Amino acid sequence: MAKTILIVDDSASLRQVVSIALKGAGYDVIEACDGVDGLKKLDGRKIHLIISDVNMPNMDGITFVKESKQLPAYKFTPVIMLTTEAGDAKKQAGQAAGAKAWVVKPFQPAQMLTAVGKLILP
């Protein structure tokens, strides 16, 4: 059974790059264009991991992670923040919200897949 990953990023090209890498590694992928859209996709189906950008319109990634952790079905879903932000303050805000890993763009797909592999539970 393939594991499902939700990608939340306002950049369609970035979602595509991440999606291709994940699908190539055997994952199912759901895409969302911002935090609001991401929350709509959290509709009760099993999602094994969330990859979210930080800076997005409508709802930023940190707020999205906080909101997703309020949903009982996704309280323990691991989150990777994939962002251009490398500052400690943002990282701490991400960790406080519930993010488990922080991958800075530009990233190597292999680096991201390693982080994904460590966080996806069997």
From TrEMBL:
<dbReference type="Pfam" id="PF00072">
    <property type="entry name" value="Response_reg"/>
</dbReference>
<dbReference type="GO" id="GO:0000160">
    <property type="term" value="P:phosphorelay signal transduction system"/>
</dbReference>
<protein>
    <submittedName>
        <fullName>Two-component system chemotaxis response regulator CheY</fullName>
    </submittedName>
</protein>
<feature type="domain" description="Response regulatory">
    <location>
        <begin position="4"/>
        <end position="120"/>
    </location>
</feature>
<feature type="modified residue" description="4-aspartylphosphate">
    <location>
        <position position="53"/>
    </location>
</feature>
<dbReference type="InterPro" id="IPR001789">
    <property type="entry name" value="Sig_transdc_resp-reg_receiver"/>
</dbReference>
<dbReference type="InterPro" id="IPR050595">
    <property type="entry name" value="Bact_response_regulator"/>
</dbReference>
<keyword id="KW-0597">Phosphoprotein</keyword>
<dbReference type="InterPro" id="IPR011006">
    <property type="entry name" value="CheY-like_superfamily"/>
</dbReference>
